[in-house]
Write the structure tokens for this entry.
Amino acid sequence: MAMKAIVYEKYGPPEVLKSIETQKPIPKSNELLIKVKAIALNPLDYRIRRGWIRPLTDFNFPRLIGSDFSGEVVEIGEKVRSFQKGDRVYGMSFQILSGTSADYIKIKASALSIIPDTLSFEQAAAVPLAAQTSLQALRDLGHLGKSGRVLVNGASGGVGVFAIGIAKIMGAHITAVTSFRNTDFVKDLGADEVIDYTKEDFTKSDHKYDIIFDCWGNKNFVKVEGSLEEKGIYISTIPNVKNYFLSFKNLIGQKKGKVVLVKSKNEDLETLKGYIDKGSLRVIIDKVFPKSEIIDAYKYLETKRAKGKVVVNFES
């Protein structure tokens, strides 16, 4: 059975995206077929689309885009017991292999969860990649504890806003790095202190942090090492060669540099669902675009001015 999908057949700018007709996927025994209602856009999408990791992505054109999704369960594999047809679900796909920009996608049951009761499909699509990245970075890599001091670089972006919320839930003291345009915005999210990067370089100050979470990608371990506490940890969202080299290089030191590689986990989505339903974690969407304007949505995302997430409604 045919369906529509948004794909690209060559690397390039947003204009390489186009709609095609393709076959609806058939779920395996441990998978579900999802009718996609909305997807969220991430910097990872356009880095892959531009060909930044060609050795990993040259093999399967045309390529879907998108990692985050929300939707409705329409078919269930014979080994799946935890979901039913009609369930409202959200999760993320491993975009190196397959994206989410299609009318229907198949996905493992372990990579999704029931949508928080308080969220729409559009809001739910904004959560999986960014929020799980922040959760897994701060909790699993940073071991953030109560009263820990965390600096979030790129605090007003998709990952940054969730990092502020999750660090606040963990009881941390939060310093947010952003521009003057977003000072009040990040304070409202829960930041205790704000540094305007247009006026001040946090690496030049005497302040020390237990965790520096670089959501923007313009720093590295060497640049921030002097701003870390004795056993401080720098965590980057950018999986480039330099960050990996530095993370191996400092294995013997007390200060550490790490790279977060997010994995969609049912248990982490359930944790986030609990935070959201209790009102402890907010979902911030900057703009919602209809599917027909997905090129404009990416152009907007690539201005790097979005506050929170950019979402595409696949039902419109």
Observations:
- The CA atoms of residues 138 and 144 lie 6 Å apart.
- DSSP finds ten helices and 16 strands in the chain.
